[in-house]
Write a structure and sequence with these properties.
By secondary structure, the protein is an alpha/beta fold. Strands 1, 2, 3, 4, 5, 6, 7 and 8 form an 8-stranded mixed sheet that branches. The protein has a two-stranded antiparallel ribbon with strand order 9-10. 46% of the residues are buried.
Length: 777
């Protein structure tokens, strides 16, 4: 058994902090293990120069020192096709250092922890075979051993360790079984026994000759490493941190000539390489299984799927035992019942948003109402009290009141993901997405965009096809993100009060469906007329169902909800204070206020003589004099807002938005929403509910009572529907635009996307308002 590598010994001698990579297939339990190892000592950033997420954490070793754990993107193979796989491959091979920089020190990590799903041993060992070829110190974490046992597989960690020559620890990550043992052996990682691939003799000869040329160009490169690099040249994956680009360019013609010679004798190097690796996997698997357990069926020699190359890993099945997952999937991935179940899950999600979150929202409303009133009372009348009550408490409170709904949305999505159901939903949606030029891999980014388009767009890096990835990026903002939820809720609860909870949930669901339809039509148009290129085969591994882990779910809900709260306390607070100032200043002079009051009082005294009680329902059962005073005060406040800086700007753009049914106040809200969609609610709070801490009920009353100069109501059902359609379709989040620019590498696509989405939103909102108004709504 080989001892510590020279690189590892050098790092220890220099006293550098130890670094361990976590590598494994998607759905192998790698993230669960990462969370178990690092707990809350985690940090998420991006690798420099790329948009791939970099997750790092700290773990305390038995000797009391801290080590860094880097959770690499999940990959089935080191022969990379997507940006995620490329980063994982580059870090492991040394082309990209663990700091994320290209060209950093080769192998600047101590060891690789290969995460292997015991219930899918054959598939997972394919990646291990490539890690063995790299000659790096290894430790194997054998996860999901409990699931393997339930499937009739008894895999011995000791036997597997003996076969590979490296430490192997059985893990049940969500129960933290084996986690301490794994930490204890991190410092004892070893280089695995050499990998002898059973390739055709002609290919072996070409590999040896190519390795000699590589050694001549790179003095000091070990023979085993040179042979592994030669193999990668033959399969079209020559990148390596130990070989400079100039050397790569010199070797490429030699490799191309070798591939041509092999083709002349009927040998495909890629196919032969895959088959050789699987023969090695078969031998290792046979040595790891305890005699007498169920048979693990491996792919037959020569099987490589649908001709998509070595990343197409044939399924590994277990017989004769039929698993619970397979029995459930008979229904949940059924071409009819699967969609019925999916629709029921989505319906339950939206009903819960209105039903379950209601009491918590009422409590938050009451709390902010009390806080605003109390602080204003302490400060006393004046500008400062108005700023605290209306700008700070009213603005931020108008958004934070929707935190329960946001948390519920993230809770549902996290449960669906952790249970394994999201992969089934992606499988179901593959056929639908394929009709519009996408595939099942677009489903997870699009579904993530319902929470926030930014992580959804970043999740497209798992899509190999540039055409499908770009199309997914450009349509992801059509998904109704959580920032739209406060706007939807305000408008639906204000103008559809006569509808039941199920009816309001139906309206909410229709808004999400409208975004999906708009995204589908846009993707279809892009793939048909603008984005050329063939479609890729959708390859998906369905993970076994499991009970969602409370810790994982709550951590996900908290981290995402915290981002929403932090944004409310920073960006939205700043915007709310700015909008308050714009809507508050300039203050009218005493003469202007008196003149306006005289005109208003004369008009409302006439109205009071005709209608002693306000039949519009805003102020009821008041003495005529009090009724007139209240109306005059409301007019003075409205005129103050109208002649403020915000009012001047809003009236300037009012001719453009008036055909949609909007007045200047709504226009100010739409402009503010370009910074953050949630700001629309706080803007309505500031412009309509001045003098009150934000509370959805009085804000709703003020919105329903708003009138144009000719006495017509500003807000009607047609106006509300038009505005809902606008928020579904419009591109208003500048943070999303910035991420699209970074992902696409320029401003062409984000600018085109913004113009297109806002143009579509304007036309659709115009048609809705004028059409509903025509029919008397």
């Amino acid at each position: 058994m080989t001892t510590l590598s020279g690189q590892q010994s050098t790092r220890l001698a220099l006293g550098k902090a130890r670094v361990f990579l976590l590598a494994g297939n998607p759905n192998s339990g790698k993230t669960t293990l990462f969370n178990a190892l690092t707990g809350l000592r985690q940090k998420v950033a991006n690798y420099p120069g790329v948009t791939v997420e970099k997750k790092t954490g700290r773990v305390r070793l038995p000797d009391g020192s801290d080590a860094t754990i880097i959770d690499l993107p999940g990959t089935y193979s080191l022969i990379s096709r997507s940006p995620d796989e490329r980063v994982a491959s580059d870090v492991i091979r040394g082309a990209r250092g663990t700091s994320g920089n290209v060209g950093a020190a080769v192998g600047d990590f101590d060891a690789i922890v290969a995460v292997v799903d015991a219930s899918n041993l054959g598939r997972n060992l394919y990646l291990v075979s490539q890690l063995v070829e790299e000659g790096r110190p290894l430790v194997v974490a054998l996860t999901m051993t409990d699931i393997a046992e339930r499937r009739g597989l008894n895999i011995s960690a000791e036997r597997l360790a003996e076969v590979l020559g490296v430490p192997v620890i059985g893990i049940v990550g969500h129960k933290k079984v084996g986690v301490e043992e794994l930490v204890g052996v991190l410092g004892h990682a070893r280089i695995a026994r050499g990998l002898e691939l059973d390739v055709p003799a002609a290919m072996r000869l070409e590999m040896v000759e190519l390795a000699e040329a590589i050694q001549a160009a790179v003095p000091g490169l070990a023979g085993g490493r040179a042979l592994a690099v030669a193999e990668r040249f033959l399969v079209g994956e020559p990148s390596d941190g130990e070989i400079k680009e100039a050397v790569v360019e010199r070797i490429k013609p030699l490799a191309a000539a070798a591939v041509a010679r092999l083709a002349s004798v009927g040998i495909d190097p890629v196919q032969a390489d895959v088959e050789a690796h699987y023969r090695w996997v078969e031998r290792v698997t046979a040595g790891a299984l305890v005699p007498g357990c169920a048979v693990l069926e491996l792919p037959p020699a020569g099987a490589s799927g649908s001709g998509v190359g070595p990343t197409m890993l044939p399924p590994v099945a277990v017989r004769p035992k039929r698993t619970l997952t397979q029995r459930i999937d008979r229904w949940l991935v059924h071409r009819v019942w699967g969609f019925v179940f999916f629709a029921a899950v989505m319906g339950l999600l939206f009903v819960s948003i209105f039903s379950f979150a209601g009491p918590l929202m009422d409590g938050i409303k009451t709390a902010f109402d009390w806080i605003g009133g109390t602080l204003a009372g302490w400060i006393g009348p004046g500008v400062l009290a108005d700023l605290v009550r209306d700008g700070v408490i009213g603005g931020v409170g108008g958004v934070l009141v929707f935190v329960p709904q946001i948390a519920l949305l993230f809770l549902f999505l996290s449960i669906l993901e952790d249970s394994g159901y999201l992969a089934r939903a992606a499988f179901l949606m593959d056929r639908v997405l394929g009709r519009v030029g996408l595939n099942g891999k677009s489903f997870i980014p699009l579904l993530s965009s319902f929470a926030c388009a930014i992580p959804g767009i970043m999740a497209t890096r798992t899509i190999e096809s540039r055409k499908e990835r770009l199309a997914t990026i450009l349509v992801a903002p059509f998904m109704s993100c959580s920032a739209r939820l406060p706007v939807y809720t305000l408008l639906i609860t204000t103008f559809f009060t006569q509808w039941s909870a199920w009816g309001r949930a139906g309206i909410m669901l229709s808004l999400y469906a409208l975004g999906v339809v708009a995204a589908g039509l846009t993707a279809w148009g892009l793939s048909r007329w603008m984005l050329r290129g063939g479609s890729t085969t959708f390859i998906l591994e369905l993970p076994p169902y499991k009970v969602p882990q409370a810790g994982t779910v709550l951590r996900h809900v908290w981290s995402n909800t915290k981002q929403f709260i932090v944004r409310a306390g920073t960006t939205i607070l700043a915007i709310s204070v700015l909008l308050w100032a714009l809507a508050y200043f300039p203050m009218p002079t005493a003469a202007e206020r008196e003149a306006r009051a005289t005109v208003a009082r004369a008009a409302w005294e006439v109205e009071a003589s005709r209608h002693p009680v306000d039949d519009r329902g805003m102020i009821e059962e008041m003495r005529p004099a009090d009724w007139v005073d209240a109306r005059v005060e409301a007019v003075l406040e409205s005129e103050h807002r109208r002649h403020s800086f915000a009012g001047m700007f809003g009236r300037g753009i009012e001719p453009v938005i008036r055909p949609l049914g909007y007045d200047w106040k709504i226009g100010v809200g739409l402009v503010g929403a370009f910074a953050a969609r949630e700001v629309f609610v706080s803007t309505m709070s500031i412009t309509y509910a001045a003098g009150n801490a934000e509370n959805t009920v009085p804000l709703a009353q003020a919105m329903r009572a708003a009138r144009f100069a000719d006495g017509r109501p500003v807000w009607t059902t047609a106006t509300a529907v038009s505005l809902l359609v606008w928020f579904v379709l419009a591109m208003q989040c500048m943070s999303t635009v910035a991420v699209v620019r970074r992902e696409t590498g320029g401003w062409v696509w984000p600018v085109a996307m913004t113009l297109y989405m806002n143009g579509v939103a304007y036309v659709a909102a115009l048609v809705c308002y004028q059409g509903l108004r025509h029919f008397g709504w």
